[in-house]
Design a protein that fits this description.
Strand content: 15-25%
CATH superfamily of the largest domain: Dihydrodipicolinate Reductase, domain 2
CATH architecture of the largest domain: 2-Layer Sandwich
Order of helices and strands: EHEHHEHEHEHEHEHHHEEEEEEEHHEHE
Number of helices: 13
Shape: globular
Largest sheet: 9 strands, mixed
CATH class of the largest domain: Alpha Beta
Distance between the termini: 36 Å
Radius of gyration: 24 Å
Number of domains: 2
Strand order of the largest sheet: 14-13-12-11-7-10-9-8-16
Bound molecules: NADPH dihydro-nicotinamide-adenine-dinucleotide phosphate, 6-O-phosphono-beta-D-glucopyranose
CATH topology of the largest domain: Dihydrodipicolinate Reductase, domain 2
Length: about 450
């Protein structure tokens, strides 16, 4: 059923996110019949636009463009929205600098946006534990947690959502999913681009705040959490919090690419990290003794996000008398070319018994032959439908920041050449994810 009779308000509609992601995502939802013509989309900002000038900023079909309106400023916004019709719900997307989230929330409440309102908040959510906690308090002073939708766009990636299905809908993996069979977990998130035109933001953040504390912790939680009692968002979020509570970070190594300090917006003596290695562990019955390794960064040799589950080696018996059989691995290809790869041993053809490593690959695109929806399409539609599964709770954000408290901006910075990831100091055999190629070869 298409979403109808909703007002979608974008604060900061003159900005980059609205232009590149939000309006195009809404246009696609309209084209797909997920939202209908009874909805209105109201952009707001301090910039002056006539409704026509605002519409002309976007390359969208004319029938969709008719849903777009623009209002300058905050004062009188509620009255303006009410003047556009009677709406069952009002979704407000804060596409604003994080420094103004709390102030805008207070202004919205003062304007009269009440129980019918849902507020969507972009990342970054806080800068550290204290600031995230303060922001939650400020938001909770005017809106109930049930009305607040915090975005982590990694949760909207198809391959990320498949983690729970893979784990809890396949009995094959259920018995091995613990320290009994798993040796280590490795998460790799590489990007080829540097900071590009986001130097100003990134230099005040660094890769740990930008990627590890949020996106990669979410991946880890989904990979290691207990089965929720239902698919209810609150049940899933509660299980993620349980994992976060038991995470301890052991070590962090920070690196910066050569030339970073000359990027626009970056301080010439910056010690912000653009690459990090993190070792952590989970102290619960399922995972105790299983080290978890993360390598994440920018200006590297490839773009790819993977999770590698390394199984324990076989005993030195039968085919593995000399200990040469490579332990099995499960590789989750989060992007690009989403899929799952199993690394197995098999017999090579011929009269002699010789073993070779082989892979079984599941590729999303080949299997289902559908275009994978863009993250913001999914997030906006879920917010409109009131489904919070793909959004992060206050407790998750605070708990995750708390775990990193002693490791932000901490320790020496080493340099690496763009395109050349630094050698690992994690003390493990790091999985060569590139070796597996794409799940879709
Ligand atoms: P912009 O810097 O382009 O800002 C968006 C709009 O916010 C501006 O057009 C401006 O509108 C308004 N604004 C700017 N400064 C202030 C201020 N001090 N007080 C009130 N309003 C202000 O940001 P983006 O659109 O790039 O991003 C919006 C949010 O989304 C940010 O939190 C960002 O971190 C996050 N984000 C963005 C991504 C992207 O791809 N762009 C990706 C992931 C997250 P006006 O001047 O008209 O009021
Ligand atoms: C954003 C970070 O949250 O995620 C960016 O701010 C990063 O620095 C981006 O480039 C990566 O997202 P994706 O979906 O391209 O992996």
């Amino acid at each position: 059923m298409a979403v109808s009779h909703s007002a979608i308000v974008i604060l900061g509609a003159s900005g980059d996110l609205a232009k590149r992601k939000l309006i195009p995502a809404l246009a696609t939802l309209y084209e797909q019949g997920e939202i209908d013509e009874t909805n209105v989309i109201i952009g707001t900002g301090r910039t002056e636009y006539s409704p026509e000038a605002f519409r002309s900023r976007f390359d969208v079909p004319e029938d969709f463009a008719r849903l777009l309106h623009y209002y300058v400023g905050m004062e009188g916004l509620k009255k303006y929205v009410d003047g556009k019709g009677t709406f069952e719900q009002i979704i407000i997307f804060m596409a604003l600098p994080p420094s103004v989230y709390a102030q805008r929330a207070r202004e919205l409440a003062a304007e009269g946006f009440g129980a019918e309102t849902r507020i969507i908040i972009e990342k970054p959510f806080g800068y550290d534990y204290q600031s995230a906690r303060k922001l939650n308090e400020e938001l909770h002073a005017v809106y109930d947690e049930s009305q607040i939708f915090r975005i982590d766009h990694y949760l909207a990636k198809e391959a990320v959502q498949n983690i729970l299905v893979f784990r809890f809908a396949n009995n094959l993996f259920h018995p091995i999913w613990s320290s009994a069979a798993i040796d280590s977990i490795q998460i790799s998130a590489y990007e080829t681009i540097g900071v590009e035109d986001r130097g100003d933001y990134f230099d005040g953040s660094g890769i740990i705040r930008d990627m590890a504390q949020n996106h990669l912790m979410q991946l880890l939680c989904l990979m290691t959490m207990e089965a929720p009692v239902s698919l209810d968002a609150e049940e899933i979020r509660a299980q993620k919090v349980n994992v976060l509570k038991t995470i301890s970070i052991d070590s962090v190594h920070r690196y910066q690419y050569e030339g970073y300090r000359s990027e626009r917006g970056v301080k010439p003596d910056s010690t912000t990290e653009t690459f990090a290695e993190i070792k952590l562990h989970i102290d619960n019955f399922r995972w105790t003794g299983v080290p978890i390794y993360i390598r994440v960064g920018k200006a590297l040799d490839r773009k790819g996000t993977e999770i590698g589950i390394q199984l324990k080696p076989l005993p030195h018996l039968l085919f593995n008398q000399e200990g040469r059989v490579q332990p099995n691995r499960v590789i989750f290809k989060i992007q690009p070319a989403e899929g799952i790869i199993l690394d197995l041993a098999s017999k090579t053809p011929g009269s002699e018994v010789r073993l070779a490593r082989t892979t079984m690959k599941f590729c999303y695109e080949d299997e289902f032959d559908v275009e994978i929806p863009e993250a913001y399409q999914k997030l906006l539609l879920d917010a409109l439908r009131g489904n919070k599964t793909l959004f992060v709770s206050a407790e998750e954000t605070e708990m995750s920041w708390r775990k990193y408290a002693d490791f932000l901006d901490h320790g020496e910075i080493e340099l690496y050449k763009p395109g050349h990831p630094p050698p690992t100091k994690l003390g493990c055999e790091w999985i060569d994810f590139e070796r597996y190629g794409s799940a879709c070869d």
